[in-house]
Design brief:
single chain; mainly alpha; 3-stranded parallel β-sheet
Length: about 140
């Protein structure tokens, strides 16, 4: 793969999502070459938590994504981040999963993360990235 698109309408090869349901909403931006990377974490929309609607069938969400796209790769980014002590590093876990899919030098990814986060959470974010990088899809 020679390109990456994150939630854009320009024929993305990869589509990163915080959760599967959000991926379902963004299917219009995908094509048969898209690989969806999703956080395996359920967050109920207000309509569901208020009882006004039911959450869509999760197997149905997965099937819809797989039917339209080249693949669905799920990573339990939020649970992994919580285990590490800070749910906010889920995005670094997701970056590790993305790095696993698109390749590149892992040390370059780590360096970028280290340069972009506060010093007090630098090591935690790099460890979170490594957890995503080493996750088995």
């Amino acid at each position: 793969m020679n390109a990456i698109g994150i939630i854009c309408e320009y024929n993305p090869f990869h589509l990163g999502q915080a959760r599967r349901l959000e991926g379902l909403r963004r299917l219009v931006y995908t094509n048969k070459d898209t690989v969806v990377l999703a956080n395996d974490w359920r967050i109920d929309p207000v309509s569901v938590s208020s009882g006004q609607a039911d959450y869509p069938d999760e197997d149905g969400i997965r099937a819809a994504i797989r039917e339209r796209c080249a693949g669905l790769r799920e990573i339990p980014a939020t649970p992994l981040a919580v285990e590490m002590g800070n749910a906010r590093v889920f995005n670094s876990v997701m970056m590790g999963g993305l790095a696993q899919l698109v390749g590149g030098d892992a040390d370059v990814w780590r360096s970028v993360i280290a340069d972009r986060v506060a010093p007090k959470v630098r090591d935690l974010n790099v460890r979170a990235f490594d957890a995503g990088l080493n996750h088995t899809f």
